[in-house]
Prior knowledge:
The protein is 56% helix and 13% strand. Strand 5 and strand 6 form a beta hairpin. The N terminus is likely disordered.
Amino acid sequence: xxxxxxxxxxxxxxxxxxxxxxxxxxxxxxxxxxxxxxxxxxxxxxxxxxxxxxxxxxxxxxxxxxxxxxxxxxxxxxxxxxxxxxxxxxxxxxxxxxxxxxxxxxxxxxxxxxxxxxxxxxxxxxxxxxxxxxxxxxxxxxxxxxxxxxxxxxxxxxxxxxxxxxxxxxxxxxxxxxxxxxxxxxxxxxxxxxxxxxxxxxxxxxxxxxxxxxxxxxxxxxxxxxxxxxxxxxxxxxxxxxxxxxxxxxxxxxxxxxxxxxxxxxxxxx
Length: 270
């Protein structure tokens, strides 16, 4: 009887151990199944890689226009009335962020219906004198047609432009790393840098225009006609391109397609 009792007890313990082991395995399996979640893809697909290359090409156009605008001095043209000078010649000025140019033109080359001298890009120019601003060296203001520039606004516009150029280079490096290494993560800093660079380029243009208005308001002795020129147009276009490209890059970093969420799709039965 005692042997039978001990055998039953041993069987119960073995069954309990086996049941506990199988139960523990089942619980661990459930936890492992619950812990396995579908990870978000970090590598761009073939379609996304093509979109990244297309947007990067558009952004490079914006960068090229920015460099063209920053390197040229046709941001604004200043032209006094033709009657301010002699009947044979008159003088017109144009400048950008870094230097200004004074050009003497023949009066016969100017449109007779135009009241002011210019434009500055006339082929009949007889003399041109370009000098760099001393804002960044000695801190001196420049005098153009008896009007004095505002150093603080000019330096602010140049600083914003240089900061935007640095962000463009950073964004371009991130896109190149994303395409070479196949990592989608680098698109996020690139999108932020491109967007901020476009905004800073537009802010630089706005601050520059305010510096032009401050220049004109510094002295009212000579009436001056002013107009933004093609360098400023390049800056404005590049700022818009970079901002839009940065926002589109940001859409590519989303874990879902915004077009599929916003636009309904008709699923046809097969």
